[in-house]
Write a structure and sequence with these properties.
The protein contains 14 helices and five strands. The chain has 329 residues and is mainly alpha-helical. The chain is elongated and about 75 Å long. Strands 1-2-3 form a three-stranded parallel beta sheet. It folds into two domains: 215 residues, HUPs (Rossmann fold, 3-Layer(aba) Sandwich), CATH 3.40.50.620; 83 residues, Tyrosyl-Transfer RNA Synthetase, CATH 1.10.240.
Length: 329
């Protein structure tokens, strides 16, 4: 049985895109009415790729906060905070790192995947190898009962559970809760080139994009490779465009597009214009709200400051409990 406290975070490694929204943010917004939610800007984690340009973290953190608030996260319903402002994260990470066997970290599937994905940064660092230990500290400091993840991320959370079991067994006290996975239904959403939507692939549609930028990107999207000519019949299942139609277009329009595409009665250009129109209709309210929020940076920073103070009280109490169990205070 999953308890009431939820924790999750996002790295401020750049602008948030539609993949971030549908993969995590949309679920967070839905949970804030029914759970005690703590959501944090994981700026320490971002140093794994931004260690050469750390001056970007403040700017990116602000952008993430603006995207969160304009998308619907409500500071009256959830706690929004900045990881690096709470020193207990770094201290507990250090403590836990002393008792985590290196092979546990080396078998983490993300370790190799990320190194293969990110080619422009040297990822062979001690900090990146120990990323899951800091992630565990983030979770257990708040005694989170569950972490919202996609089904492919469940093995990553199991490492946190192993670390919790090891700590509690070593010091003979159940200080930390073993976090459960709260499985989120994450729709498959590729970028404009057909690969996974990612900042590093330069194929993303960002929440901060203008109407003109969004339309331009939709027009550039890859479609069914079998449609070399306008008269060739297509298959929406094989088209990179259709998963977005399933999210943003009415069911009746989806059915019309499926039939027309298979009979070559609609061209890919027309299909893209329909998607752009429906996507923008959905995004207009968020785009307007984003402009309003971004124009008041002091209010954004005050929301993060208040949330960080609240989170710090919880983290401080948990760390004190852990150090007491270890008999080092």
């Amino acid at each position: 049985m999953i308890g009431n406290r939820i924790l999750s975070g996002m790295q401020p490694s750049g602008q948030l895109h539609l993949g971030n929204y549908h993969g995590a943010l949309k679920n967070w917004i839905a949970m804030q009415d029914n759970f005690d939610c703590f959501f944090f800007i994981a700026d320490l984690h971002s140093l794994t790729t931004l260690y050469e340009n750390p001056q970007l973290l403040k700017k990116y953190s602000f952008e993430v906060a603006v995207d969160w608030l304009s998308s619907g996260l409500d500071p009256d319903k959830c706690t929004l905070f900045v990881q690096s402002e709470i020193h207990e994260h770094a201290e507990l990470h250090l403590i836990l790192s002393m008792m985590v066997p290196v092979p546990w970290l080396e078998r983490n599937p993300t370790y190799k995947e990320k190194q293969d994905e990110v080619k422009n940064v040297d990822m062979s660092s001690y900090g990146f190898l120990g990323y899951p230990v800091l992630q565990t500290a983030d979770i257990v400091l708040y005694k989170a009962n569950a972490v919202p993840v996609g089904i492919d991320q469940v093995p990553h959370l199991e490492l946190s559970r192993e670390i919790v079991r090891r700590f509690n067994k070593l010091y003979k006290k159940k200080v930390f809760i073993e976090p459960e996975a709260k499985i989120s239904d994450v729709p498959k959403l590729n970028g404009i080139d057909g690969r996974k939507m990612s900042k590093s692939y330069n194929n993303a549609i960002f929440l901060s994009d203008s109407e003109k930028e969004i339309t331009k990107k939709i027009k550039a999207m890859l479609t069914d490779p079998a449609r070399g000519r306008r008269t060739d019949p297509g298959d929406p299942v094989a088209c990179n465009l259709f998963p977005m139609h399933k999210i943003y277009s009415p069911v009746e329009m989806q059915e019309e597009i499926i039939s027309a595409c298979r009979k070559a009665e609609i061209g890919c250009g027309d299909c893209k214009l329909k998607l752009a129109d429906n996507l923008l209709k959905s995004m207009y309210p968020k785009m307007e709200k984003r402009k309003e929020i971004a124009a008041k940076p002091n209010e954004v920073y005050e929301i993060l400051r208040a949330g960080t103070e609240k989170a710090r009280m919880v983290a401080k109490a948990t760390l004190q409990e852990a150090k007491a169990a270890m008999k080092i205070i």
